[in-house]
C-alpha cells in the first residue's frame, strides 16, 4: 500500500475528517475563517499595525539597539537566554532592566514576561485563585484565558466601562471574600479608555483589588509615555494589585513587564506557570526593550506622541466633515487613542470593505476586518490605526477612500443610513503630560 493510501486510513486522517475539517467549514460558512496575510510591502501606507510611534521600523532606533547590544559582555549568551529564569536564564542585565522598569512605572518591583499574552496568563491564572473576579466585558482574550486557567475562581462581567454596573456587583459580593477587578486602560477593539479614577475610587470603597492591562497605553499616554496609570497618578494606589505593560505595541519590540509589590513578584515566580516554564527573554530582546524605554521617555518620544495626538484629531475631524457632506451615518467609535474603530456590521460586509480598499489602492493601503467571534455579532468593525509617521496627505487619502468605499456598498446592508452621523465631533482633551 502506498504512503497516500496509508495516510487516508490513518488515525490522524480520521481525526481531521471528524473534527478539524467540520470546524473549518463552519468558519468558512460564517465568513470568519482566519488566514495569514502578508501585510508588509514596499511603499505601503501603514494604517493597521500597533507600531504607534513607529519604533519598530525606525532606522534610528535600530542603530541605537545595535550600538547598545555590541557593548554587552561577550561571555553572555548572545542569541538566547538558554533556559528559564529559575534555571540558567537569569542574568545581571535582566535584573538591572527589571529594576529600571520598576522605577519608570513607580512600582516596588517588576517581572519580565515573554509577551503580553504570557504576562496576563501568568497574572490571572495565579492571583485570582479562590477569589471573586469582576471583569470588564471587553477585556482581552489573554485576560479571559488566564482566568479560565485559575482554580475555583468565580467570574462575573460588568458592562463595558460602566462603573454603576461594577458597583452593583461589588454590593452583591459575599462579605469577607477577596474581590479582584480586571480592566484594560485602553481597549484594543474600541480604542476607548477606562474611567480609571472612578474605578479605583470604587475599588477602595469596597475593599477590592485591581489588575490593569496597559498594553495599548504604554508609549502613548501619561508622563513620558508610561501609561494611563501614570497620567492619573494611580501607580501607587492602595487598590492596585499589579499592572501589565506590553512592549509589542508603541514600544515597537517584544515582551512585557508585570509591575507589582515584591511579594507579588515572588509569588508569580513560584506559582505562575508561563513564567516558571518558559525560556527567559534573550539578551538582544532585553537590549531592545531598554532602548525602547529610553526613546519613549526622551525628547524623541515626546515629539512622536505629539504627532500621534495631532494625527488622531485630524483623522476624526476630516471624517466628520466627509460624513456631513455625504449626509449618511458613519459609525466611528469615540476614541482619543490611535485605535479608531469603524463599525461595519456583518462579517462579509467587513471583509468586502477591506478588500475594496486594498483593490482601489493596489494593495498600498490595507485595512483588516475584525470579525465575530472576536467581537460580538453586529459589532464587526474595521480597526484603523493612526501612527506618528502617518502624514496629513495619507490621512486625507484614507478618509476619502473610506467614505467613498462605504458609499459604494449596498445601503440595504445597513452600513449607512440617512440622518445625522453618530460620529462624535468633540475632540477630547489630550491630558497626557508631554
From TrEMBL:
Annotated source species: Cylindrotheca closterium
Residue ranges of every copy of the Aminotransferase class I/classII large domain listed in the record: 45-400
Pfam families, alphabetized: Aminotran_1_2
One example GO MF annotation: pyridoxal phosphate binding
PANTHER family: 8-AMINO-7-OXONONANOATE SYNTHASE, CLASS II AMINOTRANSFERASE/8-AMINO-7-OXONONANOATE SYNTHASE
Keywords of the record: Pyridoxal phosphate, Transferase
InterPro entries hit by this protein: Aminotransferase_I/II_large, AON_synthase_class-II, PyrdxlP-dep_Trfase, PyrdxlP-dep_Trfase_major, PyrdxlP-dep_Trfase_small
The keyword Ribosomal protein appears for this protein: no
Recorded family membership: Belongs to the class-II pyridoxal-phosphate-dependent aminotransferase family. BioF subfamily.
Cofactor names: pyridoxal 5'-phosphate
Full protein name: Aminotransferase class I/classII large domain-containing protein
Keyword flag Transmembrane helix: no
Taxonomic placement: Eukaryota, Sar, Stramenopiles, Ochrophyta, Bacillariophyta
Amino acid at each position: 500500500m502506498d504512503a497516500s493510501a496509508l495516510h487516508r486510513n490513518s488515525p490522524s486522517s480520521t481525526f481531521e475528517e471528524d473534527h478539524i475539517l467540520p470546524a473549518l467549514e463552519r468558519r468558512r460558512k460564517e465568513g470568519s475563517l482566519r488566514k495569514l496575510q502578508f501585510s508588509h510591502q514596499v511603499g505601503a501606507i501603514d494604517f493597521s499595525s500597533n507600531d504607534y510611534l513607529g519604533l519598530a521600523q525606525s532606522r534610528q532606533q535600530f542603530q541605537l539597539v545595535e550600538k547598545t547590544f555590541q557593548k554587552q559582555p561577550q561571555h553572555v549568551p548572545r542569541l538566547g537566554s538558554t533556559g528559564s529564569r529559575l534555571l540558567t536564564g537569569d542574568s545581571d542585565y535582566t535584573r538591572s532592566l527589571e529594576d529600571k522598569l520598576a522605577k519608570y512605572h513607580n512600582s516596588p518591583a517588576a517581572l519580565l514576561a515573554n509577551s503580553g499574552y504570557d504576562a496576563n496568563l501568568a497574572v490571572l491564572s495565579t492571583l485570582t485563585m479562590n477569589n471573586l473576579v469582576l471583569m470588564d466585558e471587553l477585556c482581552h482574550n489573554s485576560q479571559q484565558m488566564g482566568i479560565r486557567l485559575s482554580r475555583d475562581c468565580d467570574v462575573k462581567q460588568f458592562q463595558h466601562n460602566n462603573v454603576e454596573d461594577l458597583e452593583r456587583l461589588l454590593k452583591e459580593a459575599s462579605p469577607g471574600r477577596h474581590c479582584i477587578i480586571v480592566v484594560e486602560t485602553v481597549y484594543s477593539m474600541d480604542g476607548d479608555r477606562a474611567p480609571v479614577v472612578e474605578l479605583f475610587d470604587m475599588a477602595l470603597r469596597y475593599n477590592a483589588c485591581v489588575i490593569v492591562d496597559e498594553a495599548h497605553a504604554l508609549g502613548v499616554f501619561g508622563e513620558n509615555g508610561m501609561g494611563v496609570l501614570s497620567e492619573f497618578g494611580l501607580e501607587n494606589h492602595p487598590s492596585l494589585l499589579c499592572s501589565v505593560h506590553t512592549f509589542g505595541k508603541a514600544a515597537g519590540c517584544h515582551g512585557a513587564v508585570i509591575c507589582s509589590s515584591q511579594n507579588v513578584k515572588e509569588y508569580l515566580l513560584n506559582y505562575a506557570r508561563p513564567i516558571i516554564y518558559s525560556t527567559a527573554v534573550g539578551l538582544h530582546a532585553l537590549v531592545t526593550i531598554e532602548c525602547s524605554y529610553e526613546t519613549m521617555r526622551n525628547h524623541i518620544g515626546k515629539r512622536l506622541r505629539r504627532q500621534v495626538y495631532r494625527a488622531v484629531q485630524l483623522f476624526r475631524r476630516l471624517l466628520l466633515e466627509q460624513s456631513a457632506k455625504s449626509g449618511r451615518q458613519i459609525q466611528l467609535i469615540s476614541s482619543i487613542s490611535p485605535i479608531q474603530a469603524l463599525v461595519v456590521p456583518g462579517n462579509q460586509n467587513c471583509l468586502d470593505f477591506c478588500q475594496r480598499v486594498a483593490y482601489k489602492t493596489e494593495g498600498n493601503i490595507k485595512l483588516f476586518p475584525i470579525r465575530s467571534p472576536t467581537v460580538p455579532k453586529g459589532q464587526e468593525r474595521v480597526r484603523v490605526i493612526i501612527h506618528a509617521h502617518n502624514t496629513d496627505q495619507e490621512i486625507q487619502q484614507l478618509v476619502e477612500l473610506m467614505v467613498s468605499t462605504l458609499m459604494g456598498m449596498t445601503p440595504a446592508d445597513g452600513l449607512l443610513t440617512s440622518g445625522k452621523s453618530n460620529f462624535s465631533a468633540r475632540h477630547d482633551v489630550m491630558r497626557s503630560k508631554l
